[in-house]
Design a protein that fits this description.
Largest sheet: 5 strands, parallel
Strand content: 5-15%
Strand order of the largest sheet: 1-5-2-3-4
Mean pLDDT: 92
CATH superfamily: SGNH hydrolase
CATH architecture: 3-Layer(aba) Sandwich
CATH class: Alpha Beta
Number of strands: 5
Structural class: alpha/beta
Helix content: 40-55%
CATH topology: Rossmann fold
Radius of gyration: 20 Å
């Protein structure tokens, strides 16, 4: 009889306090993306938009505007120098860093929006150089690199007016070629979550700050600039808090 009462009590506890509550990760995601940002912009706002939040991990995706935005080009050498300064500033504060190479672009649409003559090389070839810079900064303890650019390329993305990942006329009614769709943001969030878990970089109660430009910001999708809606910080938060 006493055993039956114990079982009943346990059942009531699990109804009132579901078991997933006991194992909830409670991971916080902060969206610190700003549209149009270059690596210099990110470097200049570390003291205001990153350090005060005391994140455990910063996920940095930056470089598209440095090399491809013809209204604000910085060039590769300056980009690399800024990237090194950003990483060193965070590492000095014992903040872990995951570097993400920016996704490839649909060059057809990019050339419609920017002056092709201002590019010294094909846009996607220039983006590959960002991956090379990021790889050189990897260390065992504080800095990891996930080649998001290559992961999408091997999936055949972008595929002009065919793929579901990068905004185009067919999937979003936009002649864009740079920003991602909600489907695309969910896809990359799942990739990032899997990568972080493979290195045991996901811990309960941790605070993750997503830093970057309009791709991190989530331009043109629900919840832009936040960790809600259809931004990649939202999908990443949901994925990491599932286990």
């Amino acid at each position: 009889m006493e055993i039956n009462k114990l079982y009943l009590l346990i059942g009531v506890v699990f109804i009132l306090f579901p078991i997933n509550k006991f194992f909830a990760q409670n991971i916080t995601l902060i969206n610190a993306g700003i549209s149009g940002n270059t690596s210099l912009d990110v470097l200049n706002r570390l003291s205001s938009d990153v350090i005060p939040f005391e994140p455990d991990l910063v996920i940095l995706m930056i470089g598209t505007n440095d090399l491809l935005n013809t209204n604000n080009l910085l060039g590769y050498k300056e980009y690399e120098s800024n990237l090194v300064e950003i990483v060193n500033a965070l590492r000095e504060r014992c903040i872990k860093i995951l570097l993400l190479s920016p996704p490839p672009v649909d060059e057809v649409y990019l050339y419609q929006r920017h002056d092709k003559r201002k590019y010294k090389n094909r846009p996607n070839k220039m983006l590959n150089k960002i991956s090379e810079s990021m790889k050189r900064l990897v260390d065992r303890e504080y800095v990891k690199f996930f080649d998001l650019n290559n992961e999408l390329l091997v999936k055949g993305i972008p595929y002009h007016n065919k793929d579901k990942v990068i905004m185009n006329m067919k999937n979003s009614g936009r002649e864009d070629g740079v920003h991602l769709t909600p489907f695309g943001y969910r896809l990359i969030a799942n990739m990032i979550a899997k990568y972080l878990k493979s290195y045991n970089w996901v811990l309960p109660q941790m605070k993750i700050l997503c830093l970057g430009d309009s791709i991190t910001y989530g331009k043109y999708v629900l919840g832009e600039g936040t960790s809600t809606g259809h931004t990649y910080p939202f999908f990443l938060k949901r994925k990491l808090n599932q286990s």
